[in-house]
Amino acid sequence: MAPRKLHVGIVGLGRMGRRHALNFLERTFRAEVVAAWALDDEEAGWGHKELEPHGATIYTNYDQFLQHAGLEAVVIATIAGAHADQAIKAIERDKHVLCEKPLSHSSEIVSRHISYPCLNADTLKSQSVVDVASQKPQLKVLCAFSRRFDASYRKAWERVKSGAIGEAVVFRSQTCDMINRTSFFLPYAKASGGVFLDLNIHDIDLCLWFFGQDVVVKSVSASGVCAVHPELAEVGDVDNAMSIVEFWDGKVAQFFASRIMASGQHDMSEIIGTKGKLVVNSNPADSLVEMHEAGGIRRELPTDYYGRFEQAFVTEANEFTAACLDDTELPFSLPGAVKAVEIAIALRDSLASGQKIHFDRSGRRIS
Amino acid sequence: MAPRKLHVGIVGLGRMGRRHALNFLERTFRAEVVAAWALDDEEAGWGHKELEPHGATIYTNYDQFLQHAGLEAVVIATIAGAHADQAIKAIERDKHVLCEKPLSHSSEIVSRHISYPCLNADTLKSQSVVDVASQKPQLKVLCAFSRRFDASYRKAWERVKSGAIGEAVVFRSQTCDMINRTSFFLPYAKASGGVFLDLNIHDIDLCLWFFGQDVVVKSVSASGVCAVHPELAEVGDVDNAMSIVEFWDGKVAQFFASRIMASGQHDMSEIIGTKGKLVVNSNPADSLVEMHEAGGIRRELPTDYYGRFEQAFVTEANEFTAACLDDTELPFSLPGAVKAVEIAIALRDSLASGQKIHFDRSGRRIS
Amino acid sequence: MAPRKLHVGIVGLGRMGRRHALNFLERTFRAEVVAAWALDDEEAGWGHKELEPHGATIYTNYDQFLQHAGLEAVVIATIAGAHADQAIKAIERDKHVLCEKPLSHSSEIVSRHISYPCLNADTLKSQSVVDVASQKPQLKVLCAFSRRFDASYRKAWERVKSGAIGEAVVFRSQTCDMINRTSFFLPYAKASGGVFLDLNIHDIDLCLWFFGQDVVVKSVSASGVCAVHPELAEVGDVDNAMSIVEFWDGKVAQFFASRIMASGQHDMSEIIGTKGKLVVNSNPADSLVEMHEAGGIRRELPTDYYGRFEQAFVTEANEFTAACLDDTELPFSLPGAVKAVEIAIALRDSLASGQKIHFDRSGRRIS
Amino acid sequence: MAPRKLHVGIVGLGRMGRRHALNFLERTFRAEVVAAWALDDEEAGWGHKELEPHGATIYTNYDQFLQHAGLEAVVIATIAGAHADQAIKAIERDKHVLCEKPLSHSSEIVSRHISYPCLNADTLKSQSVVDVASQKPQLKVLCAFSRRFDASYRKAWERVKSGAIGEAVVFRSQTCDMINRTSFFLPYAKASGGVFLDLNIHDIDLCLWFFGQDVVVKSVSASGVCAVHPELAEVGDVDNAMSIVEFWDGKVAQFFASRIMASGQHDMSEIIGTKGKLVVNSNPADSLVEMHEAGGIRRELPTDYYGRFEQAFVTEANEFTAACLDDTELPFSLPGAVKAVEIAIALRDSLASGQKIHFDRSGRRIS
User: Fold this and answer.
1) Alpha carbon distance D338, C330 (integer Å)
2) Min Cα separation C293/chain A (Å)
3) CATH number of the CATH domain containing D108
């Protein structure tokens, strides 16, 4: 008998949802896409055309979607503000969950969950997902930090783990998007939660990976400018942001985010240890081609993060599927995703107030 | 109704056959592996374990394998000497064929096929595949030059086609293997047909791609040394070879092959046009990680060609499958593969004799 | 008649003084080294051996040195704490002055000079050099920020000036020293004034170059760790420091300094403008050699900043000489050097207090 | 007493002569330019303006120039055809000689010198310089192969010498000029002796350095195309040439020359040993600046070989001067320069005839 496949449903068929849907459909051997939830007619139309022929049922009602017979796992790829609620519902229905980052950045009060004094309302929402998930330990609930599945970051991690650079003490990382001059940009950016939740959330997550999830934040400090997009100031955002995060553990991190790169997407990270340093992607390129032409030597870059991390998304789909089917451990745990949101929100607050924000030794925000 | 999938059989379950089998099984959405032919018990064992659970039948009799009900296409991944015969039989049985390179390098006389005065016995064998295939134009018969499916080479080709470098006039290319000190190396290398058929065949094929398949060879000249493996001299081979191929079309190519790279696999190519130059893979690396350590900055390389071209093999499997299912054109035609073998064999002869070999304007070898 | 040469005296014949002495002696065609001041017998001995045969008189008394007949210009290369006093005396004696960076970092009160409310005692000292120099406008007084003379930084500047990257809005720069495990390190580092005055002073100076010297600081914020050298904590210093400097002009800078690089010296900078970005030295190397060896591809780095900037020092000597002889403008003015010290000291204070430091719109420190 | 300086005379004040003149005048501390020979009024005018004020006498009569009182050494930087005669005369007048490459490429018969059966008239001329020089062993006679003085090539050589790559067995090297579309190009190129004597002569010299000057040529083979400059065919030259040189010592070299690079000057070399490989300049650049702009990341290249090797020329001037003053050994001997010419001429002949040229075990040309 052929090995059984995981029955997966996709939540949201927008840009990211379609990528996840096709990755699970075509590039995840052990999964089958059996259902999808579409936000609107346009999304549903895509689902009918691309997924239905392969056996998936398209829903526009989320509860009905969750009741699809045999559905085992859901992939949440809607707007960030919806992630937490949809994840919680799915967990309550006993589905494995792969949820796009960030878990949350909305500011509504999640009254039904116990409050955490050190968290504000934004992180509460993230925390609630963790709470619900913790009551169903048999479920696999994963926040989709795609870079954790990238082969280069994993290679770096293997070397750190092996002790090759001694103890990691300094982490420097950037997420820099290509400038986008289309009319889609401003609405997207304004709804994104800001550069820290939209871009640096990845760098923060990587930092927690390389430093260890148990590190305790001591302070955060952020600055930024609106260099090209003054409209971002309306939502308290910037198009270039730099920040420092200190930890009580004698470690320190420096982040940079930009939305104005002329050349393309450039995400890079640097892990400095007591014995050496690792750098990931200091020389970005979209291929191995160099063009020798009038003006010199040129190489092109990926135009967006998916161009850089496409293979990581495929790995993510396959590993999530394997963990669900085989009941094996996920590569990283959910509470770290909450910590990443917490740090990102503190950075946003620091940017807004122009003040450094301090935390006590338990990680409780004290200013 | 779900779109139908191509029913594929794998011929040979050695190192390359297993890779093809898994690529078609797990990473080619539109294909199903329904059968496989195993050379011996060891190969059959692997097939029973890895392929049978997913619905494939394992054969050790090639004729029975070809009679598997519903089999539509075969992937030939046996030793080079068997390629031609197996391909011809499959074509005669109306199967689409994806055949590993080279089509042939054996020296038996293929008596039943018309002789080509300009070809020696080696290329005859390749030519016979073309002849048989030409009688079944409905079949897709492809020689698996994996680099044709590599994203970087394709990007280079797009630029050449767009006129970005003017007319391509000089092609320089190398295939350099990591040194292999295991006991497997010598038997493998000695049976490989030599550096030109085993390594530079790729560079020759790329040359024919970038120059156009219709270019006519004017001369070939090859030299080489046994730097580390004196035993290769026993079969007329070397572990470092350099060669020049002139074309009557005012174009010229330079190749290099090495089997002694200390650092890893390094395959690179350079296309020089009248207006610019393209270089593929001048800075090889196995990932985006750079290690800053005592001694400087270091990066690691793939240890073999599969590490460099894995994704190209997957693309190859998917595109071959799509061409069979949709009856669309293959990305390149079969006769070019014969021309590549012809040039490789002429280079081997030049190396053996120490003489430059000349061809007339029709491409007929005259010395 | 042969064109006359500038009569130069070298102040201090330690490591840096010797380099300057030989650069002016052997590699500055329009200069002659006519005198040198030595701190002690060891330095004097070197001067007698290396400089005296070429016509230089060696002094151990600074006043007598300054009275050397025909002396026109002095190069100050003593410890940082002595720079300001020696420069002031030389200016008072009507000598042109090339003074090693930083102008000062000592904390003595310079009572004879008007006080600057926004400066603390440290910057006062720097400011006093400017005051004295401003009274002798015919003299060339230059703070030796060697990177200003580096060909790559100049090329970057030409592009910024040409408008190629639009308006420069973000500046990121690092000075990273190779780890030094000799017994010389700690005494040197402890006397150096700390990472901001010893290392990042260069990055700050570059920032003022690329942003324009008139930018007004809005805030500074610094963090750091003692990763390998816990002893540095005794003098309030760290071996890794990251910092952010905001300007009222809508620009922002991020600095990094490290004393623990395993691989070698790595100083790099990034200038981000509204239309593009320039990066200087993202791939450090001590030569054009790459070593392909077991373990991959490796390149070596300079082991110290002189290895990186040697040619810049030579250019500096030649341009300073030309400016003195021809009475032409120096490439940058002295007050900027004070501003750089001021920012570095504010960063040191921020590191010590753990607080962000704010400045009002006139650049006056308000916290 | 100040150490004495070498009294140098410059022969020829064209493009290269001016560079040598200024390097010896301004950047060679131990030398003085006391005289110069100018070909014509234009050259003499430059000499009067730039050299005379610093004490040099300008001559237009070569014999009178050689009789300049106190003249100790001459630097020959005229057209290649004049090198040998001028060098011989200078040696006969007991002057040290630094002679631009190549020693010769003219075809006149040098009747007064014993003939060398294996050399044709071209190399005879080179050989004659060696003969004359060998009679004055006290003189320093050096052929100006500037790359021998380049820091990167020297670093590579140190590693080879140390055994780091085992025995060097394969050498691959290229000299690629930026395309030149000015009216100066064709006259220059046509008089240059062709790509092998003008460009690859450097690579051949490097090959003899890394393989050892005693290696014996076994065969040479060359091919080429006129891709952009069909006029070069008139003088039997090409604008792209590739060649192979086999040695009886189990070593082999591959060269490439191009005059049509769109991006700039790109000279690189690769030394492959039994244990590793060294590459010099695989990533050419004119500075450490990378431009991140629309279209990707770009770096510029030197526009000519002097841009790449300027510092090597300065080192050459200083080391030649030191060898003359101190009577120390030159870094390489003169006979190698003849061997390089011999190989270059054989390659030119191979290109012309389309034939591989063979040599016997004594290095005697047999076809």
Assistant:
1) 50
2) 19
3) 3.40.50.720
**What stretches of D27-120 show up as alpha helix (H) in DSSP?**
41-50, 62-66, 80-92
Q: What is the pLDDT of residues B235-259, one digit of tens each?
A: 999 999 999 999 999 999 999 999 9
Q: Which of C258, C282, C292 to mutate to test the interface with B (most CBs of B within 10 A)?
A: C292
Q: Is A1 inside a domain boundary?
A: no
Same domain, yes or no: D202 and D241: yes
Q: What is the mean pLDDT of chain B?
A: 92
| Residue B1 included in any domain | no
Statement to judge: residues A331 and A206 lie in one domain: yes
Domain count, chain D: 2
Q: What is the pLDDT of residues A312-360, one digit of tens each?
A: 999 999 999 999 999 999 988 888 888 998 999 999 999 999 999 999 9
CB burial class (10 A; 0-12, 13-18, 19+) of residue B360? middle
Beta bridge partners of B141: B97
Residues C183 and C86 in one domain: no
Residues D226 and D140 placed together within one structural domain of the fold? no
Q: How confident is residue B115, by pLDDT bands cut at 50, 70 and 90?
A: very low
> Last residue of some domain: D123, D144, D165?
D144
Q: How far apart are CA A352 and CA A345, in angstroms?
A: 10
Chains that touch C (3 or more CB pairs under 8 A): A, B, D
Instruction: Summarize pLDDT for B132-156 with one digit per residue, the tens.
Output: 888 999 999 999 999 999 999 999 9
Residues of chain C with pLDDT under 50: 106-120
Q: Which of C144, C168, C199 is the last residue of a domain?
A: C144
How close D39 comes to chain C (CA, Å)? 25
More confident residue, A232 or D331: A232
Residues B306 and B194 in one domain: yes
Within 10 A of A209 (CB to CB), how many other CB atoms are there?
23
**Least CB–CB distance from B292: residue in A55, A279, A292:** A279
Q: Are residues C138 and C127 in the same domain?
A: yes
**D74: containing domain:** 6-144
Structure tokens at B11: 């011929």
Which positions in chain B touch A265 (Cβ < 8 Å)?
Answer: none
Which residues of chain C have a CB within 8 Å of the CB of D275?
Answer: 293
**Angstrom distance (rounded) from CA B361 to CA C15:** 70
Nearest CA in chain A to B158: A289
Instruction: Tell me the percentage of chain D whose pLDDT exceeds 70.
Output: 94
* Judgement on whether residues D126 and D181 belong to the same structural domain of the protein: no
What pTM was computed for the model?
A: 0.94
Dist CA C243 CA C255 (whole Å) = 5
Distance from CA of D29 to the nearest CA of C (A): 5
pLDDT band at D167 (very low <50, low <70, confident <90, very high): very high
Nearest to A12 by CA among A30, A38, A45: A38
Question: In this complex, do B221 and D221 lie within 8 Å of one another by their Cβ atoms?
Answer: yes
Residues B178, B197 share a domain: yes
What is the CATH classification number for the domain harbouring A165? Answer: 3.30.360.10
Contact A53 B1 (CB under 8 A): yes
Q: Is residue B222 part of a domain?
A: yes
